[in-house]
Specification:
The complex is a heterodimer of chains A (about 500) and B (about 170). Helices cover about 75% and strands about 0% of the residues of chain A. Chain A is mainly α and about 500 residues long. Chain B folds into two domains: about 60 residues; about 80 residues, no CATH class. Classes of the chains: A mainly alpha (about 500), B mainly alpha (about 170).
Chain lengths: ~500, ~170
């Protein structure tokens, strides 16, 4: 217990350095700024803003990224409430009641309760991450290559189950991502693989290029097809930001339950935040005395999913920081950023770079605080941003992304590769392939291959090692069980309904 | 494209019922074959150790299998048609990105032109992809965005970009 506080103290002493507070603030602001833009989700926002953190020192860069992440998420909720366009799956549920509240003239209360709910959830889950971080890194000691491989299989299967639409196609995206990640030099022999003798490919495809292409550029190209003139923006002036006593009373239970659900689901690999917000909403609807109010502007319907997705966003750092395995696409981006700074995510980060580890945890809390104190007063600014026509927004995003990618390596080829992935992402969307599993697999690919090779070598080429070692067998069993369940027709239908709702 | 139409005879119908899956699956198969082709010269298993080509071929094999399943789904289940691909939007956006890359780095007869001109050009080219674009407004917005980017990237983040064409300095 004492350790926990001394560690958190260390974290806050790092995060509270003026420069780092500045980065956190800047990150939260820019994150919200981009996240608010309709049609641009959290992943796309983080992918776009990733390059601007590369020139900073590692601690500052990661703190800024954490700020960007929370800002992006909050920005997405703002768009959901005001325009009824969810940036991403996590804020789909917020649309249901949030936009209804806005139409009833209670946009201010909806946005405030979303921020307050997120903040409370953030406080609780920050302590949870700090408390669980240390014991969980001990687990990592039991993990050999076989266990790591199986854990990554499990993570990818979660991503498959949680992707919209066809399970088979999501698996196809995973395999495509794994194959793409193998372009470049082989880690052991140095042989060039699938480079087509093209020197630009010998170091592999940069991960930021893939992410920016399939999330950023593809998104823009697709949005251009839909006329953006008829957006349902709440036109009335937003007043009464402070929620009433009754609002607070109504939503306190929802926030508590949302926090609990989100914290638990976030730890699971594979996109906990999405399930968490759906689960929290469903639970509130079930236990409510007046379930008919949901979908018509019930404040619990905003409070619970917002608390849940923020709690999940926070606790999803646990698998990343303790095992080095990103549980979802945003965390995959974080791994990319850490690697560029020469940090290998995993249990050793906590012992070797305690200031980075605890500083980041503390900055999560700070990031949440920033959202409440900065973003709420700025709601008016975000609203006016929503009124900027899309025809002016999209070229700005294109230019911004171009400079961002170019700045990573001063390489024009990188920009062109990202453009190619943009076209690829556009094609994928036309054929109903989800890009998120592809990006996750792309990041996990090298780690997976390395562990697979080591496990096979240690077992002298006997693949049964994955099922004879108990932890590995358990992880694989869960992966197969989940996949089977997702393929069963009955459950598939339920799953589709959840996503449609 | 679709077989089984035409003569009206009830032949064994190999009709594409879900084109998104069918063509998507074929593309996956093509991708797997390209991967096999690209790794053909890489060593495979060396005793119990993986060679550089083992893992790519393993995953390419799995992708081939899944691609067949997806293609088969396209023949056996019904699905919506493929949405038409827009041309104008993607073409201008991609041209804008390409222009930025070429102008920043310089290629063939184009000298490196610096951040200001590259950003401005990328903005103007990509905005032409929208049918709703208006000239005056676009020029003002492009100038504003270029200024914003110069301030953010060159002044705040201190990235060492050349701002103006090399021959002007």
């Amino acid at each position: 217990m004492f350790d926990l506080f001394s560690n958190l103290w260390l974290g806050f002493s790092v995060a509270a350095q003026p420069a780092n507070i500045g980065f956190c603030l800047l990150g939260a602001l820019v994150g919200t700024l981009v996240g608010v833009l309709p049609g641009i989700g959290t992943v796309a926002t983080v992918a776009m803003l990733l390059p601007i953190t590369f020139s900073l020192a590692p601690v500052g860069a990661l703190i800024m990224l954490a700020g960007i992440y929370y800002g992006a998420q909050y920005g997405g909720s703002t768009t959901s409430v005001l325009v009824n366009i969810p940036g991403e799956a996590t804020s789909v549920v917020t649309c249901l009641d949030g936009h209804q509240m806005a139409r009833q003239g209670r946009a201010g209360a909806a946005l405030a309760i979303a921020a307050i709910g997120s903040f409370i959830a953030g406080c609780v889950s920050t302590i949870l991450v700090a408390a669980l971080g240390e014991p969980l890194t001990k687990i990592a000691l039991w993990f050999g290559p076989a266990e790591y491989f199986s854990l990554m299989v499990l993570g990818l299967m979660f991503a498959v189950v949680l992707a919209h639409g066809s399970v088979i196609k999501a698996i196809a995206m995973i395999l495509t991502g794994l194959l793409l990640s193998m372009i470049g030099s082989d880690i052991e022999t140095g042989a060039g693989r699938m480079t087509f003798d093209w020197p630009e490919l010998s170091d592999g495809i940069g991960f930021a290029n893939v992410a920016m292409g399939v999330f950023g550029f593809a998104e823009i190209i697709r949005n251009l097809e839909v006329s953006q003139e008829s957006r349902d923006i709440v036109q009335s002036k937003i007043k009464g930001l402070m929620p009433t006593k009754k609002d607070l009373k109504d939503s306190s239970g929802a926030i508590a339950r949302g926090t609990l659900i989100g914290s638990i689901l976030g730890i699971l690999p594979g996109g906990g935040a999405v399930v968490a917000s759906f689960a929290a909403y469903t639970v509130e609807k079930r236990i409510s005395k007046h379930p008919e109010r949901f979908g018509k502007g019930a404040i619990e319907g905003v409070a619970a999913p917002e608390a849940a997705n923020n709690a999940a966003a926070q606790t999803s750092f646990i698998p990343l920081l303790t095992l080095g395995i990103p549980p979802n696409a945003v965390m995959a981006l974080m791994v990319g950023a850490m690697t560029i700074h020469g940090i290998v995510p995993g249990p050793q980060v906590m012992t070797k770079q305690p200031d980075l580890f605890w500083g980041m945890i503390a900055s999560m809390w700070l990031g949440n605080l920033m959202l409440v104190v900065i973003n709420l007063p700025l709601v008016g600014v975000w609203v006016s941003l929503l009124r900027v026509p899309y025809r002016l927004l999209f070229p700005s995003i294109v230019v911004f992304c171009c400079i961002g990618i170019y700045s990573i390596n001063n390489s024009a080829t990188d920009v062109l590769i990202a453009a190619a992935f943009g076209l690829f992402g556009y094609w994928l969307s036309k054929h109903e392939f989800e890009p998120a599993p592809l990006v996750l697999a792309f990041v996990l690919g090298p780690l997976m291959e390395e562990n697979l090779r080591r496990a096979m070598l240690i077992a002298r080429g006997d693949p049964s090692v994955f099922v004879t070692r108990p932890i590995s067998a358990g992880l694989l069993f869960v992966a197969v069980a989940m996949l089977t369940l997702a393929m069963l027709p009955l459950i598939r239908r339920r799953r589709d309904e959840v996503f449609v709702e | 494209m679709a077989t089984g139409h035409g003569a009206g005879k009830p032949v064994i119908s190999l009709k594409i019922r879900a084109p998104r899956d069918f063509w998507g699956g074929l593309a996956l198969i093509a991708l797997a074959i390209i991967a096999f082709f690209a790794t053909r010269e890489l060593g495979g298993m060396q005793g119990v150790a993986f060679g550089p080509g083992t893992a790519p071929r393993l995953f390419a094999g799995l992708l081939l299998a899944i691609g067949c399943v997806v293609t088969a789904t396209g023949l056996m289940t019904d699905g919506p048609p493929i949405e038409t691909f827009a041309f104008r939007g993607p073409a201008f956006v991609l041209a804008g990105i390409g222009a930025f890359a070429v102008m920043m780095q310089g290629l063939w007869f184009v000298p490196p032109l610096g951040l200001v001109l590259s950003s401005f050009a990328a903005f103007i080219i990509s905005i032409s992809g929208s049918r709703e674009a208006r000239w005056m407004e676009s020029l003002i917005a492009a100038a504003a965005m270029t200024t914003f980017c110069v301030v953010l990237f060159s002044i705040v983040l201190k990235l060492p970009f050349p701002l103006w064409p090399a021959f002007m300095l």
